[in-house]
């Protein structure tokens, strides 16, 4: 029974994150033009089977009998074009491989940095969490990410359990626990993030308290359109104050927040960003709440403002719905840190409470 539940959990997480783009390094044979590549992982023999389908290779074929045959000059020209295509593809794939290895090395370096603080998190912060969580030292350490080995425990402590749920209550599921909300699209991404970092009972307790503690998700999941529109108004004001030129550009191309921000906030960025970047965002979100979600949104737009200036409605919307896998997380957090979240002298929490 336990194995069945574990298998179901793994399949659930795979289904949730299957929409993320995955960059796989591939080797292109020198005698092959690659157009469509299907990569199937064979778990038994650990080999990648690459099926190549292309019409580009036809450039080297002889013409049908009812057409004039190629002369030697044309044959040579086509051979050069074919070789040039091959060379361009090989260079592109090598560049992708280098970029992938570079990103992977950076991820490992970041993880090693976090792991070096693991003992401090485990022996100092967790046992004294409520006493030291708000100190400058802990907040600074927190900002740069939580080691994955203790991430689930920290999230659980940060979200707290104001609802006083116990492990036995998770079997009822959130839809039964909160029938006035039920299931709303996007919850599965949030559930997957929690299940990846903690046991199922703790994940449910954390999920219920997370929605209970955060006003935005309470509003969004009850589909209170009037209040949701007020959130969009607040976001537009923040965008105007922090990125006035980009705000103006979005108005000109009719790109409103509901085209991209809805997905970002509903899934707490789990759908739009790679898993490692999403985890960093969640680390601070469980501490700072809704305010950080809005700061993150402005920070992402700040990071990509130059690219977005040159885009029309369609390209900008597509870009923001699926952000690049190559996003530079440290640069993104620098942008987030610089965001001014106050409006007319009021803090974000004061603004939200006045809605």
From TrEMBL:
Q: Coiled coil where?
A: none
- What's an example GO BP annotation here? vesicle-mediated transport
Q: Name one GO molecular function term.
A: GTPase activator activity
* GO CC annotation terms, alphabetical: cytoplasmic vesicle; vacuole
Pfam families the record matches: RabGAP-TBC
Can you give the residue ranges of the Rab-GAP TBC domain? 72-289
Q: Which InterPro entries match?
A: Rab-GAP-TBC_dom, Rab-GAP_TBC_sf, Rab_GAP_TBC_domain
**Name of the featured protein:** Similar to TBC1D14: TBC1 domain family member 14 (Bos taurus)
């Amino acid at each position: 029974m336990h194995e069945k539940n574990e298998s179901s959990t793994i399949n659930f997480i795979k289904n949730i994150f299957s929409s993320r783009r995955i960059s796989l390094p591939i080797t292109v044979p020198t005698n092959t033009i690659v157009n469509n590549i299907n990569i199937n992982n064979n778990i038994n023999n650990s080999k990648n089977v690459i099926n190549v389908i292309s019409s580009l290779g036809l450039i080297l074929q002889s013409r049908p009998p009812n057409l004039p045959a190629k002369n030697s000059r044309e044959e040579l020209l086509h051979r050069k074009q074919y070789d040039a295509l091959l060379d361009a593809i090989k260079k592109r794939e090598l560049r992708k491989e280098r970029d992938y290895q570079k990103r992977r090395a950076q991820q490992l370096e970041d993880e090693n940095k976090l792991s070096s603080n693991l003992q401090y998190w485990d022996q100092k912060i967790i046992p004294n969490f409520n006493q030291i969580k708000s100190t400058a030292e802990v907040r600074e350490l927190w900002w740069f990410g939580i080691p994955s080995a203790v991430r689930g425990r920290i999230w659980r402590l940060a979200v707290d359990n104001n609802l006083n749920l116990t492990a036995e209550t998770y079997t009822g599921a959130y839809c039964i626990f909160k029938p006035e909300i039920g299931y709303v699209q996007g919850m599965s991404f949030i559930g997957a993030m929690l299940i990846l970092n903690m046991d199922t009972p703790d994940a449910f307790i954390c999920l219920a308290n997370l929605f209970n503690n955060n006003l935005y998700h309470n509003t969004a999941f009850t589909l209170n359109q009037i209040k949701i529109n007020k959130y969009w108004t607040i976001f537009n004001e923040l965008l105007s104050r922090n990125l006035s030129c980009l705000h103006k550009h979005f108005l000109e191309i009719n790109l409103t927040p509901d085209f991209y921000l809805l997905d970002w906030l509903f899934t707490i960025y789990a759908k739009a960003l790679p898993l490692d970047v999403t985890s960093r965002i969640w680390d601070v979100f469980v501490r700072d709440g809704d305010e950080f979600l809005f700061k993150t949104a402005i920070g992402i737009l700040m990071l990509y403002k130059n690219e977005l200036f040159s885009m029309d409605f369609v390209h900008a919307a597509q870009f923001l719905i699926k952000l690049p896998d190559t996003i530079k997380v440290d640069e993104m957090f620098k942008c987030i840190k610089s965001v001014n979240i106050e409006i007319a002298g009021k803090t974000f929490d004061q603004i939200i409470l006045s809605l």
